[in-house]
């Protein structure tokens, strides 16, 4: 310690190991290391790390009865409305661009003559996933939530009123789109809407 | 930083409506803005619009990668 002033005094820190005093040491840079130990029952075990120095967390060791993992959605929202559709063509009713979840949706229309062969259509991320005809849903009694993606609510072949809904909890990554494919040469006003939330 | 998280196009009362949905970088403060239907739906115009509405610089607004701006 020739480079230090003559009033400088070195101190040694010691710790008790049982009843024996042990000198606490440092490495060549003067760093004091601590070894983490944990109790396994009454036995001490070293807490170890991987080659990068990362401690591994073992969730099984926690006293958690359950882990709750909930995706964070924004507030529920609605997009929809009504539009006079084009005869013998597919017409866009509503589209939502983003990533999220559908809570519900609906289609309905009334016209002066039958629309039984026209289709209500749901596209998820640009892919057509459901395209039932009004008449097809009625014939096959597709009128229960969850059993089909789009399910029938009203089929009135006297007054020509029709409505259907979308089963909930369909997720989408980029878009959800509602369309109507008119097949009778008519131009009814069709209402389509979707309740959704975006992440 | 504000992020554009979604765009909706619908027809309430038969009139076309475009809405932009944003939130903060912290994943909160969800906001919805009605975009002028006559304005072109281009990335630069959307950023200009949101910059004015939110009173932040365009550089502080980003469009989420999963939001594909439609050609309408």
3D structure, described in words:
The complex is a heterodimer of chains A (199) and B (72). Chain A is mostly beta strands and 199 residues long. Chain A folds into 2 domains: 14-61, no CATH class; 77-198, Protein of unknown function DUF2961 (Jelly Rolls), CATH 2.60.120.1390. Chain A is built from 1 helix and 14 strands. Chain A has one helix spanning 134-139, and strands at 14-17, 20-23, 37-40, 43-46, 77-84, 90-98, 100-110, 119-124, 127-130, 150-156, 161-166, 170-172, 175-181, 189-198. Chain A is rod-shaped, with a radius of gyration of 34 Å. The mean pLDDT of chain A is 89. With 72 residues, chain B is an alpha+beta fold. Chain B has one domain (2-63). Chain B has 1 helix and 4 strands. Chain B has one helix at 43-54; strands spanning 2-10, 17-24, 31-35, 61-63. Chain B has a 4-stranded mixed β-sheet, covered by helices on one side. The radius of gyration of chain B is 12 Å and the shape is globular. Chains A and B meet through strand 5, strand 6 and strand 14 of A and strand 1 and strand 2 of B.
Task: Note the topology.
The complex is a heterodimer of chains A (199) and B (72).
Chain A (H helix, E strand, L loop, with lengths): L13 E4 L2 E4 L13 E4 L2 E4 L30 E8 L5 E9 L1 E11 L8 E6 L2 E4 L3 H6 L10 E7 L4 E6 L3 E3 L2 E7 L7 E10 L1
Antiparallel strand pairs in A: 1-2, 3-4, 5-14, 6-13, 7-11, 7-12, 7-14, 8-9, 8-13, 10-11
Chain B lengths: L1 E9 L6 E8 L6 E5 L7 H12 L6 E3 L9
Parallel strand pairs in B: 1-4
Antiparallel strand pairs in B: 1-2, 2-3
